[in-house]
Write a structure and sequence with these properties.
The strands form three sheets. The chain has a six-stranded mixed sheet with strand order 6-7-8-3-9-10, with helices on both faces. The chain is α/β, with parallel strands linked by helices. It has 13 helices and 14 strands. The termini are far apart.
């Protein structure tokens, strides 16, 4: 008898989701399907459309077109039900500096209508989860940046949301604190079965945390898969070759090599996707001509981003999407 497999219903689903600010298209016909318990990453530079996407899913911005359902509820028609289903940790800290950590969580429990008979136990559990029990009675203004982010995680979980949005959760933190915060995010997914959608422009963060990643460039998804599959899809190793004028790379010759899968040139640098780079390096150098420097390594998500967008991830497009909070006041549903 053939086994019958249940069809998994997405916790978040978008179809053609679009957001325009006047003539600028911040999110362009986005199609996503995210399952329960998944850590899903939106990866791209500032201005790519990541924060705008989260804002629409959290009902903070009305879509200009398309549709989105969060926990089965339509973000346009059932906004209050969506908000009860989600937690949101914003880029900018929003805890009250003059209150203690515990007081901040208690205030949040009142705002979300958490049963007061259960609130204290939930606060205790949230503080324990993020290792702030011993510092709970200190004012937040004495907290370090990492402690504040952990408190915001605890606050976002206090009303037991099914879905948690994390917008650049480790922005501005030092590498050690960032890795500690990754540990808490993973625990939320594995222990609490929370579906987590995280925006980031840190490649190593997406690689370490996410089950799947959508690479977004100028409002569009240009690639979507697990980090491992995205890197595997590039094929082989990555070889960087730098040139100094008047030397010119012989791209036609190197493209004829059987080991070379892909060739891209940016200014004075050529990037190759190559099988067995270590053993083929002499053949590559002989074909391409005199070089200034050579670097060879396994593919990274940054290489994936470069492959699909033709550029490295960076922050120079920040003004394109930045300032969306101000636009919210007068954008309307265009």
């Amino acid at each position: 008898m053939q086994a019958i497999h249940a069809i998994e219903t997405p916790v978040i689903e978008t179809q053609g989701l679009t957001k325009k600010f006047d003539k600028f298209v911040a999110v362009n016909k986005l199609n996503l399907s995210i399952n329960e318990g998944e850590i899903f990453g939106l990866l791209g530079p500032n201005g790519a459309g990541k924060t705008t996407t989260l804002s629409m899913l959290a009902t903070l911005l009305p879509p200009s077109g398309g549709s989105a359902r969060v926990n089965g509820f339509d973000v346009s028609r059932e906004a209050s039900r969506v908000r009860k289903s989600i937690g949101f940790v914003f880029q900018d800290p929003s805890s009250d500096d003059l209150l203690t950590g515990r007081e901040n969580l208690y205030l949040h429990s009142l705002m979300y209508g958490v049963d007061m008979r259960a609130a204290q136990k939930k606060i205790d559990a949230a503080l324990e989860l993020v290792d702030l029990t011993e510092r709970q009675n200190e004012r937040v203004k004495k907290y370090s940046g990492g402690m504040r982010r952990r408190l915001e995680l605890a606050r976002g979980l206090l009303h037991e949301p099914r879905i948690l949005f994390l917008d650049e959760p480790t922005l501005g933190l030092d590498p050690q604190t960032r890795e500690h915060l990754w540990k808490y995010i993973k625990r939320l997914s594995t222990e609490k079965k929370v579906t987590i959608i995280i925006t980031t422009h840190y490649m190593e963060e997406a690689d370490a945390l996410c089950d799947r990643v959508a690479i977004i460039d100028r409002g569009k998804v240009v690639a979507l898969d697990s980090p491992a599959n995205l890197k595997k899809g590039l094929g082989g190793d990555v070889v960087y070759l730098s040139f100094r004028k008047p030397n010119k790379p012989n791209l036609a010759a190197v493209k004829k090599l059987r080991c070379v899968r892909n060739v891209k040139r940016e200014g004075d640098r050529v990037t190759l996707s190559c099988d067995y780079a270590a053993s083929q390096l002499q053949n590559i150098l002989k074909a391409i001509g005199k070089v200034e420097s050579v670097e060879s390594r396994s593919p990274t998500l940054n290489d994936v981003f470069l492959h699909f967008t033709g550029k490295e991830i960076r922050d120079d497009d920040g003004d394109a999407e930045g300032g969306y909070h101000e636009r919210m006041m007068h954008s309307g549903n265009r």
